[in-house]
Amino acid sequence: MRVVLFSWEYPPRIVGKLAEYVSTLATQLVKSNVETHVVTYNDTMTGIVDEPNGAKVTRVANPVRTHVNILTWDLTLNQEVERAAANVYYGAGKHVDVIDVHDWHFIPAAATLKNALGIPFVYSVDSLEDHRSPGTDSPLNMAIRGIEWLGFFEAERVTAKSEWMRNEITRLYKVPKEKIAVTLPVAEFAVRDILGIYRAAAGGLVGK
Amino acid sequence: MKRSLNVMMFSWEFPPRIIGGISPHVYFLSKSLAKNGVKVHVVTCDFPGSPAHEVIDGVNVYRVDSYKNPSPDFASWVYLMNLNMQKEAAAIAAKLHEPIDVFHAHDWLVATTGIGLKHVFRKPLLVTMHSTEIGRRDGLHAATEHMIHETEAWLTYEAWRVICCSEYMVQHVKWAFGLPSDKLAMVPNGVNPHVYDAFDKEDLGSFRRKYALPNEKIVLYVGRLVYEKGIHVLINAVPKVLAKVDAKFVIVGSGYMQEQLSIIVKSMGLEHKVLFTGFVDEENLMRLQKVSDVSIVPSLFEPFGIVALEAMAAKSPVIVSDTGGLSEIVGHDVTGVKVYPNNTDSLAWGIIKVLTDSKYAQALRENAYRAILEKYDWNKIAQQTIRLYESVLGEYSKSFWA
User: Fold this and answer.
1) What is the pTM of this model?
2) A203/A157 Cα distance (integer angstroms)
3) Which residues in chain A are contacts of B100 at CB distance < 8 A?
4) SS3 (DSSP) at B356
5) What ipTM, to 2 d.p.?
6) pLDDT of residue B188
């Protein structure tokens, strides 16, 4: 199985808890004989590196240096994420089983890659805009919610890190509960469950 | 047999959505490409009442959700719209029976759509740069302007070829983004002279009387009433022209300078000689171009100057300021008159010359119309564009992406 993980943070770039989580996930996947690629953002350490944990990590920077808000930063950076993912796809004889996108930042790239190349994706939710910016309805927050909605709509499967989050996703975005699986974020987490989700997602895309 | 070229074009505007010059450009280019055997798929923004997919003169037009929620600002909207456009264009391209050979983007407004799809499908991207932020703003000032400029730079970097519509723009784009010369190509903008044919059969006498007295020559200006268009130069030339020849100055268009210009005209006591029409619909605009005795394009900054081409196609003699794309369109004393930019005396001299020498004016009309047919014909422009696609595909076929 060949998997590409998308995350806007990955060690050594640590913003919150997500970096450590994705790094542990990558390590566990490699141990389970999964060919694991990571595409992440780093402003200075760009390029492709075979990391000690066995994952192949591509770090991309934004070609546009001046921005007016996080949306313009994110929506330009996504093209570099697409380029990096396409390099994995073409380099591996045009086959990637599944993309696992962590939080909203790289959902646009995942949606385009799905529609263009038929690569299914899993949307792994760490946090939602409604919880990060409660009670806000500015155009900026609305646009980020729109991107989260796109992720729920286009993803084959959704993962949440608690039963509470699973309920919140259903409450806020009306995602059917059957589409959402809970995977607990403990250190030696159940990689077998996640592999099951990946397999279901990879088999679930029509025409794949 | 070789299969036909399959091209996907991105444009933020396509008729009936018309905001500026890109819409008619993409409309005529795509239509003329289709006539020359190219399969063209135009992906553009949706428009109320227009279908999501239709075939217009052999061109497949797809209108995608242009992001209609409120946006923080215009530039953020552009990138949000591109998120939708790219995703939908990806689905359209993936479902086609034959793969897309070339992606062609028009301006930074569709930059991220084009750049992403180039990499995802690994097909060459071409871009037509119709304008630049640094040219529009006369420098880069606010953060938004820098961001747009950097997006334009990135787009020209990712493009296999960068097309400009005039030699002036080729030099400008080369300077603005530091591009190598062999990456740039000049393909002119076009005009369709046959849209004016219908008016040859029409008696325009009564139409003309609505705008001018029989003894008055009509001097026509078409364009926004803004500083860079040099309309103030024309207004200042009015008394100098009237000293030699009786004329009516018809000013079509609107803009922030309108009130100021009206005050100047009033203070000169020439309200009866200068008519501000405001916006005029397309048909009546073409009639005005047909009945005018001279058309003036006094711009101070002009990447191309399509309005001069339109006047030439309507067989109205043109006077342009010798700047930007206008310098290339008009040959002095051959297809029109070139005057010094921002120079009232020079402009007045040109107008008087054309209005008082009917033989000269007639020669300009005929030469200009011939030049339109020879150089600015959409069919020829389409063929030039096809040669460009083919040369890019020749290079592409030797690359590791092929």
Assistant:
1) 0.91
2) 11
3) none
4) helix
5) 0.96
6) 93
